[in-house]
C-alpha cells in the first residue's frame, strides 16, 4: 500500500500534542539554571538595573563593578508580578512556570493563523504542531534558560502581532506588540518589514498608507527611546547594550557584522549535518564481539533543514500573494542580517535558533505551499517523524555531551 493511501486519523496529532506538551511542562518545571531574567526581575522590584550581589551565571556583563544583562529587559518586567506574588507567600517562582504557557500560546496562535487561511481543524493542528515540535523551536520549548525564554517571548509577540494584523488590521495595537518584540530581542524587530511592505503593497490611498505607517511605527519609536535611555543609565552610552562589552567568543578586533561571516554562517544554518560519535562505556555484545554504539548527535548544532524538514515545502510556494511577498521580503532581510552577524556556532542548541526570528514569516509561506489548504498524508508523516527525530536528538544531547564522546 502506498504511503499516500494510509489514513492518518485526527487523534494521532492530538496524542502527540499531549505527549510533547507534557514533556514541555515536565522539563520546564525541572530546569532551574541560567535564570538571569528571574534574578533581574527581583532586582527591578528592588529598584536596581543590575544583578544582585553574589549572583553568578553565564553571560553577565561587568561594568563599573556591577553585573548587567545584555538582552532586552521586557522578559524580566513580565516576570515581576509573578516573582512579587510568590515572594509574598514564601515560594520561589521559576521561568519555566511561565514558559510552558508561552509555548502553548505560540501553538494556539499558529493554529489560529492557519485557520485564518481556511485550513481545517486537523490540518491546522498539524501545522501548528510542526511549528512547535517539528522545527528548530522544539529544543527552545524544552529549556527555560534565559536565552531561550527571551526568544520564546519575542516569537510569541511577533505571532500575536501577525494575528492581530491579519484578523483586525489594528495598526497601532500591532505596533504596540512589535514594541514589545523590540524590548525583548532587538534582532527580531527586523520582522517589522513584513508589516511595512504589506501596507505599502496595499491598494489604499497614499494618505491612508502614511496614516497606517504612523500608527504602526509610533509605539515602536517610543519603545526605542526608552531602550536608549535604559542603555545610557547602565553603560553611559545610548547604543551600548552590553553585548560588545562581554562577547568572549568574538575575536579581539573583529567586527560584529561583516561579509567575512557569510560563508560559514550559511554552512552552519543550512548545510551542516549531524555528527557521529562513539559513546564511552556504551557497548553491545553480539556473538561474542563487543561493538561500540554509534551515536548521532547535533553538536554543537546542525542545519535548519535537519530539524525542520517540513520547510522544504517552501520550495513549492508561488510568489503571487501579497502576504507571501511581504513574508519573503521580511525573511530575506532577517536572513541577510543573520548571515552577516558574527556567530561562533558554539551555542547550546540543536539547530540554528536564531532562525526563529524569521520562522513566523516562513510559517506564513508554508501555509501557501499546500494546495487547497490540504496537508498531504506525506507531509503529516514527515511532521510526526521529524518531531520524534528532534526528540531523539534532544535525548542524545542530554545523555551525552562533548566530554562523554571520544
Automatic annotation (TrEMBL):
Keywords for the protein's UniProt record, in alphabetical order: Membrane, Transmembrane, Transmembrane helix
Ranges that cross the membrane: 12-31, 68-89, 96-114, 126-145, 152-168, 180-201, 213-233, 296-315, 327-345, 351-370, 382-400
Protein name listed in UniProt: Glycosyltransferase RgtA/B/C/D-like domain-containing protein
Lineage: Bacteria, Candidatus Woeseibacteriota
Amino acid at each position: 500500500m502506498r504511503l499516500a493511501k494510509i489514513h492518518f486519523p485526527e487523534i494521532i496529532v492530538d496524542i502527540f500534542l499531549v505527549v510533547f506538551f507534557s514533556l514541555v511542562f515536565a522539563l520546564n518545571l525541572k530546569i532551574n539554571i541560567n535564570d538571569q531574567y528571574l534574578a533581574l526581575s527581583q532586582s527591578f522590584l528592588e529598584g536596581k538595573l543590575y544583578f544582585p550581589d553574589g549572583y553568578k551565571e553565564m553571560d553577565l556583563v561587568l561594568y563599573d563593578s556591577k553585573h548587567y544583562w545584555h538582552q532586552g529587559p521586557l522578559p524580566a518586567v513580565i516576570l515581576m508580578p509573578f516573582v512579587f506574588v510568590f515572594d509574598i507567600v514564601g515560594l520561589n517562582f521559576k521561568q519555566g512556570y511561565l514558559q510552558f504557557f508561552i509555548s502553548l500560546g505560540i501553538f494556539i496562535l499558529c493554529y489560529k493563523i492557519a485557520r485564518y487561511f481556511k485550513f481545517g481543524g486537523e490540518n491546522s493542528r498539524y501545522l501548528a504542531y510542526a511549528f512547535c515540535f517539528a522545527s528548530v523551536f522544539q529544543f527552545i520549548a524544552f529549556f527555560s534558560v534565559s536565552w531561550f525564554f527571551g526568544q520564546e517571548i519575542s516569537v510569541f509577540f511577533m505571532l500575536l502581532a501577525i494575528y492581530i494584523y491579519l484578523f483586525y488590521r489594528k495598526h497601532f495595537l500591532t505596533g504596540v506588540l512589535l514594541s514589545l518584540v523590540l524590548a525583548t530581542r532587538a534582532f527580531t524587530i527586523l520582522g517589522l518589514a513584513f508589516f511595512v511592505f504589506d501596507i505599502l503593497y496595499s491598494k489604499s490611498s497614499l494618505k491612508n498608507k502614511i496614516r497606517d505607517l504612523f500608527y504602526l511605527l509610533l509605539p515602536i519609536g517610543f519603545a526605542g527611546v526608552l531602550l536608549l535611555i535604559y542603555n545610557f543609565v547602565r553603560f553611559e552610552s545610548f547604543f551600548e547594550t552590553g553585548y560588545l562589552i562581554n562577547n568572549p567568543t568574538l575575536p579581539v578586533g573583529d567586527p560584529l557584522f561583516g561579509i567575512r561571516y557569510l560563508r560559514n554562517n550559511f554552512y552552519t544554518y543550512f548545510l551542516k549535518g549531524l555528527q557521529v560519535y562513539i559513546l564511552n562505556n556504551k557497548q553491545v555484545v553480539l556473538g561474542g564481539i563487543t561493538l561500540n554504539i554509534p551515536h548521532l548527535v547535533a553538536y554543537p548544532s546542525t542545519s535548519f533543514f535537519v530539524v525542520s524538514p517540513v520547510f522544504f515545502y517552501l520550495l513549492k510556494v508561488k510568489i503571487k500573494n501579497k502576504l507571501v511577498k511581504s513574508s519573503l521580503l521580511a525573511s530575506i532581510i532577517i536572513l541577510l542580517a543573520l548571515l552577516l552577524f558574527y556567530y561562533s556556532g558554539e551555542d547550546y542548541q540543536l539547530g540554528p535558533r536564531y532562525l526563529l526570528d524569521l520562522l513566523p514569516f516562513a510559517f506564513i509561506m508554508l501555509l501557501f505551499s499546500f494546495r487547497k489548504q490540504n496537508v498531504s498524508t506525506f507531509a503529516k508523516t514527515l511532521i510526526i517523524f521529524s518531531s520524534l527525530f528532534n526528540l531523539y536528538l534532544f535525548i542524545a544531547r542530554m545523555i551525552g555531551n562533548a566530554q562523554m564522546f571520544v
